[in-house]
Amino acid sequence: MNRYGIFGGLFDPPHLGHLIIAQGVLEEFGLKKIIFVPAYNPPHKHRYSSYRVRCRMVELAIEGNANFLLSGIEERMSGKTYTIEVVKRLKQEIKGRLYLIIGADQWLEIKTWRSPEKLIRECQVVVVPRPGYELNKGILRRKGILTSHTPLIDISSTRIRKMVKQGANIRYLVPEPVLRYIRRQRLYR
Ligand code: ATP
Q: Dihedrals φ, ψ of 123, to 5°?
């Protein structure tokens, strides 16, 4: 049975951390593809850029990697798009086992998500380490959950948005085409 990685997020903007994680998890767990799923109407997060803009940036970030795909599924779903609903929908469309990629920061918040137990049953959760979130501490450990060995990468979209606002150079933190897009569209000013 083919394995597919599902990588949800705001991607505002997508950064090299996202790409390093996606490639690392793909190889570590022998996945066929990684499907990037930009959040349309995130229940927990404040949205900065429009869905279209974030999708375009993901497209630019993954171009040239045939193993990375963009899914617009959240736009086709109505209302708040909870991860459990997205996973259920994706399972109807994709024949294979779904590996849901979650950063350690998000995993810590899993109890605030809708139906976390169901989510854990519906797919294989893969938690990726993130600086500041200790994966070996009890709360982050759980039977049935995989943790990846991707490197610790101290990059966040929040930091990138702040840097752009302050006029700092974000080269090498985001892929070049994303950098050019952010400049051209004058995002995060
Ligand atoms: P923000 O700073 O706006 O919260 P972010 O950098 O966390 O954004 P998201 O698009 O919200 O990026 O992240 C999508 C997924 O990738 C989440 O599961 C998040 O935990 C994970 N992730 C993002 N950056 C990293 C990183 N540097 N290390 C590990 N996981 C990460």
A: -145, 175
Q: Where are the domains of the chain?
A: 3-154
Whether the CB of 157 sits within 6 Å of ligand 1: yes
Which one has a higher pLDDT value, 45 or 30?
Answer: 30
CA of 104 to the centre of ligand 1 (A): 9
What is the distance between the alpha carbons of residues 22 and 26, in angstroms, rounded to a whole number? Answer: 6
How many Å lie between the centroid of ligand 1 and the Cα of residue 9? 7
Q: For 3-154, which CATH class?
A: alpha beta
Would you call 38 helix, strand, or coil by DSSP?
strand
The residues with which 169 forms a beta bridge, in sequence order, are none
Using a 6 Å cutoff on CB, does residue 10 contact ligand 1? yes
**Mean pLDDT across 123-132:** 95
pTM: 0.95
For ligand 1, the distance from its centroid to the CA atom of residue 85, given in whole angstroms, is 20
* Single-letter amino acid, residue 116: P
pLDDT of 173 above 70: yes
Tell me 186's DSSP state: T
